[in-house]
Amino acid sequence: MDLQLPRGFRYAGVACGIKKRAGKRDLALIVAEQNATCAGVYTRNQVVAAPVVLCRQRTPGDSLRAVVINSGNANACTGRRGDEDAVEMTRLVARALGRGIDPSQVLVMSTGVIGHYLPMEKIAVGIERAAHQLGDQLADFTAAAEGILTTDKGIKIGCRTLATPGGRITLAGMAKGAGMIGPNMATMLGCILTDARLDPDQAQRLLQAVADVSFNCISVEGHTSTNDTLILMASGASSTSPLRGDAEYQFVEELKELCIELAKQIPADGEGAAHLIEVAVAGAPTDEQAREVARTVASSNLVKTAIYGNDPNWGRIVSAAGYAPVAIDPRKLTLRLNGVELFRGGEPVPFDAAMVSQSMRENAETRVELQVGNGPGKGWHWSSDLTVEYVRFNSEYTT
Amino acid sequence: MDLQLPRGFRYAGVACGIKKRAGKRDLALIVAEQNATCAGVYTRNQVVAAPVVLCRQRTPGDSLRAVVINSGNANACTGRRGDEDAVEMTRLVARALGRGIDPSQVLVMSTGVIGHYLPMEKIAVGIERAAHQLGDQLADFTAAAEGILTTDKGIKIGCRTLATPGGRITLAGMAKGAGMIGPNMATMLGCILTDARLDPDQAQRLLQAVADVSFNCISVEGHTSTNDTLILMASGASSTSPLRGDAEYQFVEELKELCIELAKQIPADGEGAAHLIEVAVAGAPTDEQAREVARTVASSNLVKTAIYGNDPNWGRIVSAAGYAPVAIDPRKLTLRLNGVELFRGGEPVPFDAAMVSQSMRENAETRVELQVGNGPGKGWHWSSDLTVEYVRFNSEYTT
Question: The whole model's pTM is what?
Answer without folding.
Answer: 0.84
